[in-house]
């Protein structure tokens, strides 16, 4: 079976450009940002424009700012993305041609199949642990987990007599997407009466849904090996932005203009408590004057949970695969963008109706994964998606599917899907998406990151 697809632009590169305003509070100078250039103008917000009508979430945000003063960018992003009733992710299924963006698992089944093969090679090299959890952070429609397990279990079956207890754990904030995931991966007996939703899955095991990484410890056991996937998840985590000024690190805050109703970013003239992070961490403090950096405390929280889950299994089994867009190991600067209907939009308009996304700081994931001396972790990558998929053999799978296709339409879908995933020019997914793996220390180098397949 082939999934029929229209191919809209991907999330990292939408078709329109984006502009929003940043105001330096010290000198009231407005910086107008676009995705391609940063220019400085002397304009302040236009107070003669008619006042914007605020939606419910924007009213809440404006009220909070009125009471507490400007809020951090991370607080603003958290509110917009995951407010329980009005947040972007909590209120919709945003994926697909009819939604706001399309992702690799939705483009072609080959993407998840290659990750399923990778998982099999790692599991096999770890002497085939019998009790495993497949944990996915931010599973969207559940398509990646579906394709991964389909190809992983086919490979496990080739070993014959292999007993395997496989449970799925999904970390998902959206009740709507939880339902979509249940339909695809289970379809029956959804139990919502307990603290965590549960249902049987299609491969003889259990699915458990949790809301955040903090619940994972409770729903996993020491004897289980945890295999963790995070695809286009880290880019949805809130970030704070800081600038290194001659007075020290200063934080960009979200403010609200009551006259025209607009939200905007302003550089705080005073130090905030969060300034301590870039001040004390050499990765940031060594940056040049005027550097702007993005820092995500949630990135650290999710990464340290991954590390704890890998360390928990005393047989040293388990692995995590993180796939997203971002620079190799450098620190992202001002990368926040809004996305709606496959186009870039200001992140400060239509609050809760626009997806917010940033470039992922793979260097920070690496630093966080290796910072706890009591948990010994090896980090591999980042490796560009096109290279990784080719090392896993996507070209052979594409050829196989192409030869089995029933008609020209199916052949075209396979060909287009393959090229979209692997092409490596600057604006293609094969170049901008990266793979990073975290494994218990001392194991073989995994395939896709320079290692071979162990028999
Ligand atoms: C960009 S979508 C990616 C979906 C899927 N991984 C894919 O690639 O098709 C982000 C996913 O993460 C979930 N999500 C976003 N922020 C989250 C958070 N703070 N906690 C848990 N889930 C979150 C969203 O609901 C959605 O399922």
UniProtKB/TrEMBL annotation:
Arginine methyltransferase involved in the assembly or stability of mitochondrial NADH:ubiquinone oxidoreductase complex (complex I). InterPro entries: NDUFAF7, NDUFAF7_sf, SAM-dependent_MTases_sf. Its main location: mitochondrion. It comes from Wickerhamomyces ciferrii (strain ATCC 14091 / BCRC 22168 / CBS 111 / JCM 3599 / NBRC 0793 / NRRL Y-1031 F-60-10). The keyword Transferase applies. The keyword Kinase does not apply. One of its GO terms (molecular function) is protein-arginine omega-N symmetric methyltransferase activity. It catalyses: L-arginyl-[protein] + 2 S-adenosyl-L-methionine = N(omega),N(omega)'-dimethyl-L-arginyl-[protein] + 2 S-adenosyl-L-homocysteine + 2 H(+). It is found in: Mitochondrion. Coiled coil: none annotated. This is Protein arginine methyltransferase NDUFAF7. Belongs to the NDUFAF7 family. GO terms for cellular component: mitochondrion. The lineage of its organism: Eukaryota, Fungi, Dikarya, Ascomycota, Saccharomycotina. PANTHER family: PROTEIN ARGININE METHYLTRANSFERASE NDUFAF7, MITOCHONDRIAL. It is an enzyme of class 2 (transferase). Pfam families: Methyltransf_28. Keywords: Methyltransferase, Mitochondrion, Transferase.
